[in-house]
Model the fold of this input.
Amino acid sequence: MKLGTISILGSTGSIGRQTLSVAEHLGVSVCALTANENVDRMEQQARAFRPKLCVMGSEEAAEELKKRLSDLPVKVMSGMEGLIAAATMEEAQVVITAVMGMVGLRPTLAAIAAKKRIGLANKETLVCAGELVMAAAENYGAEIVPVDSEHSAIFQCLMGCNDRREIKRLILTASGGPFYGKTFAELEGIKKEDAFRHPTWTMGQKITIDSATMMNKGLEVIEAMRLYHLPKAKVDVVVHPKSIIHSLVEFCDGAIMAQLGVPDMRIPIQLALTYPNRMPSPTEPLDLLSCGPLQFLPPDDVNFPCLRYAVEAAETGGTACAVLSGANEAAVDLFLRDQIGFNDIPRRVRRAMDTVPLVESPTLEDILEADRQARACVYDSKE
Ligand code: MG
Done:
């Protein structure tokens, strides 16, 4: 594919900013940028990359941006309408979906219907509506190239595999987060500042907390099941604290393929843009001689129940994953605002899973409604 123009949903976040640096390195132009509320950074990005369209989460933020960019030939929009316009821009060949949370679902579906390649960095899309999204991608012939490091690793290990029946299992690696080895009781008093000390990756706030609770790995198990149409029995998790091996695939003949590299998201982001080709990258090469021994440990879903709940939701199917994800987003939001404790995250998620009724073969509306109810259940809970 000759690289032309890309659209970035969520350009001011961690993945969005790294995508812009990759675009700059590759000499790829950017036709649309979207952000939630960071007007300052959006203004800088718009001046540096000159997109045709900028989108902000709220009308107020869009008005402010419009004023500041009045000297540039750029259209400014807001809200879901703007996100969908950015996702479907005629000239965009690749749409990087790096927004955080459920808000990414509709624009991703719109980009699929417009037959764009999706560089998928929005976990909730596949977690909540994996079946719908994968069916739409197949229907419209839209390519989905995962950007998450684990799923990109699996995608790379499967390049050249033409028959999915050859896959024995996918093995997702997990850093274990900053609290691996602690008991549930020891986790009770954890504050967000402790969780922000992630051992290997620097990421946005929500995903950093998800890594600390292991919910992130749970969501990734669901994502992998949906991306490759595999049952839970074929997706395993292993804790690998150094995050050098990003994930592995075991094949039916016993061969295991692994993808290794420095923990730098610019590698999977760039591949989503250049696939099926590879291009030189400015990232540090991995020095095998200084890696030290690579360690593998079992995941702990007793002290980190979020991992167990995610697997349960994946096996239940229907709207269960949307409930899990929506409840988790709300609980993490409360934790980040110091309103609930660390272990209240799994407690509130559990309550939502036990409260919100299940729809077995959901429509998009059912999924959005399950998400809404799950959030309401978490925000309304009294301890
Ligand atoms: Mg990941």
User: Anything to note?
Assistant: The chain has a mean pLDDT of 95. The CA atoms of residues 309 and 350 lie 7 Å apart.
